[in-house]
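Q: Could you fold this chain for me?
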Amino acid sequence: KLFVEVSFSKGNVTTDALYEALTIQVKAEVGGRPYRFLGQILMDLGEMTESQVLEVLSELHTVETVAS
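A: Sure. Below is the predicted structure, expressed as structure tokens.
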């Protein structure tokens, strides 16, 4: 899963906010500026809180174990 998918499925952000953040991310990269993570951009825009971003990241990085 991607950050975008998880944050949207949790209802943390709207489609418009995601498009705005992705546009900012791409413009910065094309302009040669340092890479910015989507979560940071969404926090800067006031669309997500730090705890929401951490919750999404936690879900993305949780490793499922398989019982043997």
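A (continued): The helical segments are 3-9, 15-30, 38-44, 50-60.
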